[in-house]
Amino acid sequence: MFVSQSFTPTPSGLACDDVTVEAIVGHVGTPVYLYSAHAIREAYRALDAAFSAYPHAIHYAMKANSTLSIVQLLRSLGSKVDANSGGEIQVARRAGYSPADIVFTGVGKTRDELRDAVADGIGTINAESAGELDRIAELAVAQGREARVALRVNPDIDAGSHPNISTGLRVNKFGVPLQEARTIYRERKARPGLRFVGVHIHIGSQITTVEPLRRAARTLAALALELRDDGFALEHLDVGGGLGIAYDGQAIVGPAEYAMTVIPEVERCGIPVVLEPGRSVVGHAGALIARVVDTKCYPDGRQFAVLDAGMGELMRPALYGSYHRIVPVRPRDGEESPWDVVGPICESSDVFATDRQLPPLAVDDLVAVLDAGAYGSVMASNYNRHLLPPEVLIDAGQWRIIRRRQTLDDVLALEA
Ligand SMILES: *Cc1c(COP(=O)(O)O)cnc(C)c1O
After folding, report:
1. Residue 103 above 70 pLDDT?
2. CA-based max dimension of the chain
3. What is the pLDDT of residue 2?
4. Ligand 1 center to residue 82 CA distance, Å?
5. How distant, in Å, are the alpha carbons of 320, 348, 350, 351 from that of 340?
6. pLDDT at 170 over 90
7. What is the average per-residue pLDDT within 204-209?
8. Among residues 283, 207, 201, which one has the least CA distance to residue 244?
9. pLDDT tens-digit series, residues 297-342
10. Which of 18, 33, 83, 402 lies 20 to 30 Å (CA to CA) from residue 232?
11. Res. 106: pLDDT tops 60
12. Which residues on neighbouring strands pair with residue 337, listed in sequence order?
């Protein structure tokens, strides 16, 4: 049996917060993303509580899931945000965040994005290079403003996660090499248009052990102390995000252990810490519900369950070979056997699971792909002219559609 904080088996099938998955699907169809508001609150509060002994601010990383209602829910909990693009900044603003609540990160910010960020008075722009700092300075001077900035350092630390989601290695495109950081700060200390308010690091995602997180925090604190010697009055140390979740149900680093790892490292400079969690806040809260549209069995015994959702709705398995637990919404009686659970897209990588032990599956059965709250719907595409699935938020025994299903007219409205 599986464990999920958000979706649990009941005699009426899988349910969340007293609402059955079947009841929702009866109204909105499949595929559909379901989210538990309770699970999001719990995850946010657990992290906030873990850091309660140290001055901190949580900036939810919007790229994990930026649906308006989710971002608004986090705001109601006291979260601030980490935005990765001008688009995410605008969504944050529409969700009610003030510019001061936003840190703006991301490789490849365009000049237009930077100009707007400076004009808006974004809380901190986390610059990715010396060149970007210089462009920010120019834009700020042109507007008669001072931009609040930090520099993202690349510490060459192996996050121990999948290569495609490690960002803190020398070979990665992110940040500036640690050994160059101090010089870059010093050379621009008196530069008009720039006010250095922090230092930033983010070494990767789905990090499941404390050691890389400890080293990253230690590295950042050491740099902050050097910069203090150089006369910089830093307001925060931004340790980034990256805390993993247990996709396979096995124990990994939780918020308490994370805090106990980071706090002792940053304490010696006494500077407040900024956290940018994405996955660990929303990952467990979401499930992608799909219907089995075909089954087949090859002569060698290989069985396939073809779903009405695939890489178009949830790209992680195709992109990173990610593991997601898959459970029938209403399990059938009978022996478990190995299944290949696949999507409908014309790509051989459109596979959610290979040789997965599952109870018997039949056409029209519903299955839930669990822990799909982060990096799920945000990465969905219209490939094969699939329409973006709706999203539903379940809260206190009620549910509501927070994004309707896309229609073909929505898609074709852009075309001549
Ligand atoms: C993606 C990202 C995050 C969030 O990462 P998670 O693994 O989802 O916690 C935080 N900060 C930055 C700069 C990011 O790019």
Report:
1. yes
2. 73
3. 44
4. 8
5. 17, 12, 11, 7
6. no
7. 93
8. 207
9. 999 999 999 999 999 999 999 999 999 999 999 999 999 999 999 9
10. 83
11. yes
12. 358
pLDDT reported for residue 249? 82
| Two structure tokens written together for 22 | 């079947």
Structure tokens at 411: 């898609």
Q: Are 72 and 96 in contact (CB under 8 A)?
A: yes
* Residue 223 pLDDT class (50, 70, 90 cuts): very high
Judge whether 55 and 370 are in contact, CB under 8 Å.
no
At 395-410, the pLDDT tens digits run: 999 999 999 999 999 9
For residues 213-252, b (16+ Cβ closer than 10 Å) or e, as one string? bbbbbbbbbebbeebeeeebebbbbbbbbbbbbbbeeeeb
Pocket test for ligand 1, best of 201, 202, 258, 262 (most atoms within 8 A of CB): 202
Mind listing the domains of the chain with CATH numbers? 7-30+285-412 (2.40.37.10), 37-279 (3.20.20.10)
For residue 258 the two structure tokens come to: 């994370």
Q: Ligand 1, closest atom to CA 200?
A: 13
Return left, alpha or beta for 336; rule: phi > 0 is left, psi -120 to 50 is alpha, else beta. beta
Spatial distance between the Cα atoms of 108 and 394, rounded to a whole number of angstroms: 36
Shortest-distance atom of ligand 1 to CA 84? 15
Ligand 1 atom at minimum distance from 165 CA: 7
Q: How many CB atoms lie within 10 A of CB 182?
A: 17
Asked if omega into 31 is within 30° of 0 (cis), the reply is: yes
Predicted local distance difference test score (pLDDT) of residue 4: 60
**What is the whole-number distance in angstroms between the Cα of residue 313 and the centre of ligand 1?**
21
Nearest residue to 221 via CA among 266, 183, 272, 260: 266
Could you tell me the distance, in angstroms and rounded to a whole number, from the CA of residue 282 to the centre of ligand 1?
Answer: 12
CA of 97: how far to CAs of 3, 102, 124, 241, 330, in Å? 34, 7, 14, 20, 40
277 Cα to the center of ligand 1, angstroms? 6
* Calpha distance 128→147 (Å, rounded): 15
Query: Is the minimum distance from the CB of 322 to ligand 1 under 6 angstroms?
Result: no
pLDDT for the residue 327: 97
Q: Is 82 in the pocket of ligand 1 (CB under 6 A)?
A: yes
Q: Would the CB of 197 count as within 6 Å of ligand 1?
A: no
Q: What is the mean pLDDT of the chain?
A: 96
Q: Which of 307, 328, 305 is nearest to 31 (CA)?
A: 307
**Which atom of ligand 1 is closest in space to residue 244's alpha carbon?**
7
- Summarize the confidence of residues 49-74 as an average pLDDT: 98
